[in-house]
Design goal:
CATH architecture: 3-Layer(aba) Sandwich
Order of helices and strands: EHEEEHEEHEHHH
CATH topology: Rossmann fold
Number of domains: 1
Number of helices: 6
Number of strands: 7
Radius of gyration: 15 Å
Helix content: 25-40%
Largest sheet: 7 strands, mixed
Distance between the termini: 28 Å
Strand order of the largest sheet: 2-3-4-1-5-7-6
CATH class: Alpha Beta
Length: 190
């Protein structure tokens, strides 16, 4: 079983923020496969089931931690421990200030790169051996602090491009699940 976790902050206040692109991607993937993330467990919204592509099925746990971004590790750890999911079978989706808007980057491991949700996961999981799908949100203008920028909504022009970006990111997640990380990195990393 693979655990696909989108990072974000709960509540209406943060719904359309840049920081919540991980939540939006998990919702988009669920929508594509007819899954509903209504169940609440492990301080998260989740769905457990099978994803299908062609004749292949994969057991999946979709997770949207409701612990706020900076405490995401505890929710992921609870779910992974309960289902016996190894860190190598966890895929974390999150925003990335260091990537241009809309760019995707898949990584097998590495540092938190300043992303506090990823930092929480590394600390709580005891290492960095989980996979990451980073979605670029771009750098803030000089006059805006990064911690304020990530909590702002996307600009109208960016919001218009998001469906295409999210669809490409769904394809990247599906490639990771059904083909593995190397084919996904070859296809989706710039």
């Amino acid at each position: 079983m693979k655990l696909l976790a989108g990072l974000g902050n709960p509540g209406k206040k943060y719904e359309g923020s840049r920081h919540n692109i991980g939540f939006r991607l998990i919702d988009r993937l669920a929508e594509r496969h007819g899954a509903k993330l209504g169940k609440r467990k492990f301080r998260s919204h989740l769905w457990q089931g099978l994803l299908r592509r062609d004749d292949i099925e994969a057991a999946i746990l979709l997770l949207k931690p409701q612990t706020y971004m900076n405490l995401s590790g505890s929710a992921l750890r609870e779910a992974a421990d309960y289902y016996g999911i190894r860190p190598e079978d966890v895929v974390v989706v999150h925003d990335d200030l260091d990537l241009p808007f809309g760019k995707l980057r898949i990584r097998a491991r590495g540092s938190d790169s300043g992303q506090r949700g990823v930092r929480s996961i590394i600390e709580v999981m005891g290492g960095d051996s989980f996979l990451r799908l980073r979605i670029g949100i771009g750098r803030p203008p000089v006059r805006i602090a990064p911690e304020d920028f990530v909590l702002q909504p996307f600009l109208r022009e960016e919001e218009e491009r998001l469906p295409e970006i999210l669809d490409r990111a769904v394809e990247a997640l599906e490639t990771i699940v059904f083909e593995g990380i190397v084919p996904a990195m070859n296809r989706f990393n710039p």
